[in-house]
Amino acid sequence: MATKKLIEVALPLEKINSASSREKSIRYGHPSTLHLWWARRPLAAARAVLFASIVDDPASHPELFPTEEEQNEERQRLFKLIEDMVVWENTNNESVLAAAREELMKATNGKMPEMLDPFAGGGTIPLEGQRLGLNVRAHDLNPVAVMINKAMIEIPPVFSGYNAVNPESRRLLEHESVGISGLVEDVRYYGEWIRNEACKRLGHMYPQIDVPKSQGGGKTDAVAWIWAHTVKCPNPACGCEMPLANGFTLSKKKGHEAYVEPVFDREKKQIKYTVRLGGKKPDNEPKLARGANFKCIMCGEATTPDYIKEESFAGRLGSVLIGIIGEGKKQRVFVEPNEEQILAAKVDKPEDYPTGKLSDDRRALWTPIYGLDTFDKLFTNR
């Protein structure tokens, strides 16, 4: 008779659910901070499920646990081990993990099974399999998933126990070689070096923004520049560069709302953009309906998708900076464009820009029908 695994009989679900729910608020040290991934599985649940899928339920071994009382007592012992395992603070507790591995070795007669996750995604399952001592294999078609799994599962074990190679940390950690501390220090050191070099070479193209006094004042780094494509308004009496924006909302956060507010110069046929904090959402947003259905926010003239396609194919699709989001002391700040920020983005196209043709499959990409049919056309020169 085939033995039943613990997961087929019972689990301490309340503790597993509680630990899984708590993970949502954990930031420091959690894989979710490495890279966002949709449908990421809780570490605690994956750890518990893997363990309970390998360990036999005590009732499967009447020769060891002949009575129901003894079986239940052994089951509770295994439950206690799972409950200890799923606590966040025990994620890297070697004594708790060693106890779990010992139980797994006992359940497999000393031969840990191979574990394959063919759709590894964010890497939760193979990571927890590795933590429990299983021989893990992970696959995925998405290159982002592959990179996450390499960074989280494949690379750290290779460099475990090695000293750092950067000169600063090598001096400080000369007599230490514990776990992956050397790798951690090298990632920190060379990550900062790359950032500093990038700032030296590219910083002039990404100037800091001036924060209004109403939002704290001073200068700060920009985290996002909000651009909109433009086409010339089809109304001859207007002729402005009308924005093709889905909306003008920058923040919906209660008490910290922010919106882009257009200012019209009808004589010069120009639109400038300011930022308004608080209040209600602007009424004159360009988007009319799904697809490329927009109206001119200055005169109200509606365009057709065909008109926008014609303008784009003719090379007359423009762009305009309508707002900037910066990193504030406690929360994001919202700033209107100025001449410095607009000019900083006006750079020549680099020589080695990507020229590959985009897929014609309309289920994958819709930009080619607007003339944006090569990779370089999806980006600004900057």
What this model shows, in words?
This protein has 382 residues and is α+β, with helices and mostly antiparallel strands. It has 10 helices and 13 strands. A 4-stranded antiparallel beta sheet has the order 6-5-12-13, covered by helices on one side. The chain has a 3-stranded antiparallel beta sheet with strand order 7-8-9, with no helix packed on it. A hairpin with a 6-residue loop joins strand 12 and strand 13. It is elongated, with a radius of gyration of 29 Å. 22% of the residues are buried.
Topology:
Blueprint: H1 13-22, H2 43-54, H3 68-85, H4 94-107, E1 114-117, H5 124-131, E2 135-138, H6 143-158, H7 167-172, H8 181-202, E3 209-210, E4 219-220, E5 222-232, E6 241-244, E7 249-251, E8 258-265, E9 270-277, E10 287-289, E11 293-294, H9 305-313, E12 318-326, E13 333-335, H10 339-344
